[in-house]
Amino acid sequence: MRRCLFYGVLLLFGLFGVAGRYAAGEEKASVPSLTLSDCLQMTLSYSRDMLSAREGIRQSEGLYIQERSAALPRLSAHSGLLRARDPSMALVPGLEAETDIYQAGVTLKQAVFTWGQVSAALDAAALDREASEQRFRQARAWALRETAIRFYDVLLSRELEKVASGTVAQKRRHLEETIRRNELGVATDYDVLAARVALANAGAEQTRAENAVRLALDRLRYMIGKSGDFDVSGDLSSKVEPPMPLESLVERALAARPEMAYADTQIHVFEKLKKVASAGDKPRIDLEANLLWQSYGNARFDDPGESWNAGLYLSFPFFDGMKTRGSLIQADSRIAAMRIEKERLIDAIYLEARDAVNRIAEAIDILSAMQAAVEQAEKLLEMAEAGYRAGVKTRLEVEDAQLNLTSARTSLARAKRESIVARIQMLWIAGEDLLTALQTGG
């Protein structure tokens, strides 16, 4: 009876265990898996840098409307009630000493000639809007580049986790073989203890690799705004192609990079603002017209008074305390600083292009070398384990073969990632549309 009860309890726990593993499998299967294309599309709708740059475009549009108002007529209405007392008015027949005066009017003001100030301000506002669009393109390209790099960082961390798991499995097999040999009397307790320590160390590395996967996923989450658990699907395979020639890459970058277009536009903006500043001490002509209705409350007039006036007014601030001169000095300095910034950007593009080309060439060389090295290391480990079981190889030789295989697999995975990232960097430097280039395989 007790034996039946014991087996019944074991069966119950077994059923709970199977149900738990099934539930865990269901939970893992329900985690969405994102491709590179999915991540790039999510970035376009989530990137804070892109949203901020889009608001910059709206601000530029508002600035253009604001500056355009200087070229349009301005209309204003005004009214008033005045009570006045003038004893001398009582001497005039029909008037009294105390009088209520009602006034209402409309005023029109229009700039006629501003020495190019209004037109230059309009041009500067239009160029500023164009510069904001270039900033948006820059933010978009940066967000897509970072998302793609972090996507492949997740894939790399997955590969390194597999390497660590494989190492743990190898260490466990080695421990089991050492225990078997110890039972046969051909291995010492020291060998068993050393195998246990090696397995524990490999387990620690596996834990670090698993944590690296979680960290890489969190970094990708920062770019795509994905809530909840998710995983990625893809591999580190890529086209092994030589890099673009350096001069061709730089030429395309100087022609297509939004940073270059932004720098050119900013120079034009500052040139227009210099023209605006230069008109500060120049003559200008404005049109002003007024239409006025006026009525005396206790006057014996049949109709209220109506009057109007219109005129052209010339103003010439021939001395403004050298304010205009100071503004021109600032404008010249801004233009010069922006030109220096453009030259710095060109130097940075040359450096980035040279670095990307060198990294691609380096990754290609490492890939070709490490693919053969991994195959050789796997064969070497098989030979070492077989020799250890036969008693012709030492534990040190087996561990050395395991270390070589782990190092070769790790280097191969990193080389694959470096090759892909360097190619992404090259496309970004060239000013390519990363969304199209990465979805079509670059």
Automatic annotation (TrEMBL):
Q: Indicate yes or no for the key word Coiled coil.
A: yes
- Which residues does UniProt call coiled coil? 360-418
Where does this protein chiefly localize? membrane
Q: Which InterPro entries match?
A: OMP_efflux (IPR003423), TolC-like (IPR051906)
Question: Which GO MF terms does the UniProt record name?
Answer: efflux transmembrane transporter activity; porin activity
Q: Where is this protein localized, as stated in its record?
A: Cell outer membrane
Q: Name one GO cellular component term.
A: cell outer membrane
By what name is this protein known?
Answer: TolC family protein
Recorded source organism is Desulfatirhabdium butyrativorans
